[in-house]
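Batch manifest line 490
LIGAND: nicotinamide-adenine-dinucleotide
JOB: complex structure
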Amino acid sequence: MTQRLQNFIDGAWHSSSAPQVLNVLNPASAQVLAEVPLSPAAEVHQAAETAARAFEGWRRTPAGERVQPLFKLKILLEENLEDLARAITDECGKTRAESIGEMRRAIENVETACGIPMLMQGCNNEDIAAGIDEHMIRQPLGVVAAITPFNFPGMIPFWFLPYAVAAGNCFILKPSERVPFTSWKLFHLMEKAGFPPGVIQLVNGGREAVDAILDHPAIRAVSFVGSTATARYIYSRAAANGKRAQCQGGAKNPVVVMPDADMEMTTRILADSAFGCAGQRCLAASVAITVGDARPGLTERIAEAARNRKVGCGLSSGVEMGPVISLESKARIEGLIAKGEQEGAHILVDGRGGKVAGYEEGFFVFPTILDEVPPGGVSARTEIFGPVLSLMHANTIDQAIKLVNHRAYGNMACIFTSDGANARRFRYEVAAGNVGINVGVAAPMSSFPFSGWGESFFGDLHAQAHHGVEFYTQTKVVVERWPKDWSRKF
Ligand code: NAD
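JOB STATUS: finished
ARTIFACT:
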C-alpha cells in the first residue's frame, strides 16, 4: 500500500483529514513514491496556535540552549546524508552527487545559525546625553512560516528554519506538494534533535494551506521561494495582512563570455551550470552571450558538451543529468523550445523526445541549445526551468551588459574573462544580486545573503546569514537613565 505522509504538529505525527491527496512521483520512472495530503486550513491553524503557545517558553530559553538541538541536528544530518540524498534523488530526479551537494549546503546553514549568540547581539551607546544610555536589543517575532519549491527539497527549508528557531521563533514549514518526502524524512530527524513540542512543525498542502498561512494572525513573517507569479502573490497577501515577507522568485540568468576567457574551463563550467540539476536551478545559466571572437570557440564546444552529457536516472553510475520534475514540466519545456524556433532561433542541439533505456516512462528532456536567439523572444526572456541554453552574440562588452540588464529578473549574472578590468566593470554595472566571475553558479555561502534582485525577489531582507537573523527578529531600543548614577557627581 502507498504510504500517506503525515503532518508534524505539537511534537507528534498526525494524519491529515484532507479530503484530497496527490501522488508523489519518481520523475525518472513515473512510479508512485507516496501520497501527500492537501491539508485543510484548520490544520495550519492548529499548527499556528500550537506554535504560538510554544513561543512563550522558547523565547525565554537562552540562545546558547536554543542552538543545542541544532548542533544535534547537524550530526544527525551528517549521519543520514546518504539516506537524505537518496530521498532527494527519488522524488526530485537529481543525480546522487547533486543531492549530496544540496544537503551539504543545508548543513552549512545549520552550522551558521549555531552562531546566533553572536549573530543576534544588539548594540548600545553610553551617555547619549549625560547619564543616559541607549541600547538596541533583538527579539524574536513569534510564529514564522516558510513555503518552499520543488527544486531543492533538502536545502531550501534550511535557508530559513535554523535562523528562525535559533533566534527564538517557532517555525512552520509548508513544503512543495511535489517533493514532500524529503521534508518528511528531515522532520523525523528533527524529532530526535530535541526541539520542544511546537517549535518546529510540518504541514503538507497546496494553495489552501498557503492561504491559511498568509491569513493567520499569529503568523508574523513568511518566507517564500518559488516562481515569480507565486512570489508576487504571496508578498502582496502577506503584506496586506501586516506580515513581514521575503519572497524569492524565478530567474533567467545570463552569462557573458569574453574572447579572452579560457574556453575549455568556461565550457565545462557553463555546461554544469546550464544542464546541472536538469536546468532546474534558480541559479542555472540560461542565456550565454558571446562577445566578438568568443562566438565560434564557445558555440562548438558547448554544443559538443550538450551532446555528450550522460542523461539517466540519478542513481545510475556515471549519469550527469536526471529528468525534469513532471510530465507537465517536460511538455512545457518542449513547447518553449518549439516557440523559440518559431521566433527565429536555430536549434543547434535538440533534446526533445530523448529516451533513457530502462526508464522509458521517465520525464527526460536532453540538453538543448538554441542559437541566434532574438533578444525580445521567449528563449531570451522567459524562465524555461529545464536543460535549455540560449546563445546570443554581442560585438562589445557594452552591448553584452545592455543585453544582461535588459530583462526583468535579477537573480544572477556571470562573466568569463581573463581581464580584471572587464570583470570589475561587469561586477559594477550588472543588475543582478548574485554575480559570478569565472564561476557558473554564484550561490552565496550560508554566511552571505542570497541576494536576488528585480523580479527574482520581493522584500528587503534576503535569506541566510545576518539578513536571516534581521528578518526573524525585531529591534527594541531602550533609552535608560538612573538618576542616582555615580557619573552625575562629576
Ligand atoms: P511554485 O511557485 O509553483 O511553488 C512554490 C510553492 O508555492 C509550493 O510550495 C506551492 O505549493 C506553492 N504554490 C504554488 N502555486 C501557488 C498558488 N497559486 N498559491 C499559493 N501557493 C502556491 O514554484 P516551483 O515550481 O515549486 O519552483 C520552481 C520555481 O522556483 C522557479 O521559478 C525557480 O526559479 C524558483 N526558485 C527560485 C529560487 C531563488 O532563490 N530565487 C530558488 C529556487 C527556486
